[in-house]
Amino acid sequence: MAVIFLHSGSMAPEISRVKFAVVMALSMAALVGAAVGAAAQTGSQPATPARGRAAHPFSSARTPPLVIPEQFAPPQEAYASFSAAGGAAPEPTPPSACQMRLAKIAVFQALGTLVGPGDCGAPDAVQLQAVVLPDQTKVTVTPPATLRCAMAEQVTEWMRDDVAPSLAHFGPPLRALDNFDSYECRGRNRVRAAALSEHGRADALDVRGFRLADGREFRLVDINVAKDWREKTHASACARFSTVLGPGSDGYHEEHIHLDLAERRNGYRLCQWEIREPPPAQAESTAPSPDETGAVEISADEVPLPRPRPMAANLTNSRAAKKSESK
Question: Which of 109, 137, 112 is nearest to 123 (CA)?
């Protein structure tokens, strides 16, 4: 037993050193394993992005995001200033020769080319607003009429040279033209599937009448308006326009006069407008008095007797009387 004790006591320092070395090795291994595990965990799980921000591979650099502003279409009127080349604004269309002539005798707005469905439309269209008379007074077109410039020029000259002078002797000056219809894309007389009306080409004007400065109206189809004035207006219209339609033409122009510049073969013109008059006064239905008829009073003795009966009738009556007496 003593030997064993001595042997154990002599080995104690060496065993302690071995245990210390083992403990240190295990501690180091544990530390290394913990480090390796933490590194592996860090590499397998990406960093969670901040709330409300998108993940970005360069987020660590804290680069601010690129903001792209929204693009809005320019307003419609801005397109008028866009040019096809070089950024230069397009030059306005110069007025036509007709417009230059019309500007001296009328007030109008240039409309350019009208484009409608089908064959509707017109080149060099204007909106005729007023006619300037030779004394520089204006006759308003109510409402303004949309017409080809050539038609507007013809209407203006008709008003200046014919209509206004014919109304001068009525007193107050002419102030307005009553426009019933001008440019309208439709068939003739608004009949479906009919041929295109001259109104669809901005080549026609329907006129009801005229108004003076004192408010009096002169309707072209009014039978109570002076007949001689209506006849003068009829003659001047048929001389200037290729088509004139009014009462008595086709049943569609009883309340106005249609004027247009339709081109026909051999320059054919159509003037159908009846100048009507009021109906004659009817005779009085009451019987006239004796004094008005010129009757003469006669006495009873002068009353004529009836004509004598024929002899045959007298014989027949006498025989019938005898038979009745015998019975």
Answer: 112
Q: Which of 227, 229, 256, 99 is nearest to 164 (CA)?
A: 229
If we measure between CA atoms, which residue out of 32, 202, 191 comes closest to residue 114? 202
| Rounded-to-integer distance, Cα 239 and Cα 266, Å | 16
What DSSP string describes 267-316?
G--EEE-----PPPPPPP-SPPPHHHHT-----GGGSPPPPPPPHHHHHH
pLDDT string in tens for the chain (327-residue length): 444 443 444 444 555 666 677 667 777 777 766 665 655 555 544 444 444 444 444 444 455 544 444 443 334 333 333 444 445 555 778 899 999 999 999 999 999 999 988 889 999 999 999 999 999 999 999 999 999 999 999 999 999 999 999 999 999 999 999 999 999 998 887 777 678 999 999 999 999 999 999 999 999 999 999 999 999 999 999 999 999 999 998 888 999 999 999 999 988 999 999 999 988 875 445 555 555 556 666 666 666 666 666 665 566 666 666 665 555
Q: What gap in Å lies between CA 94 and CA 89, rounded to an integer? A: 15
> At residue 218, what is the residue type?
F
Q: How far apart are CA 210 and CA 206, in angstroms?
A: 12
Element (H or E) spanning 44, and its range? helix 2-44
In whole angstroms, what is the distance from residue 303 CA to residue 306 CA? 10
Q: Is the pTM here over 0.70, yes or no?
A: no
DSSP code for 247: T
Quick one: residue 136, left, alpha or beta (phi over 0 = left, psi -120 to 50 = alpha)? left
Using CA atoms, how far apart are residues 188 and 199, in angstroms rounded to an integer?
8
Dihedral over Cα of 249, 252, 254, 260: its sign: negative
From 275, 160, 252, 140, select the one nearest 206 (Cα to Cα): 252
In the numeric block, the tokens 């009745």 are attached to 324
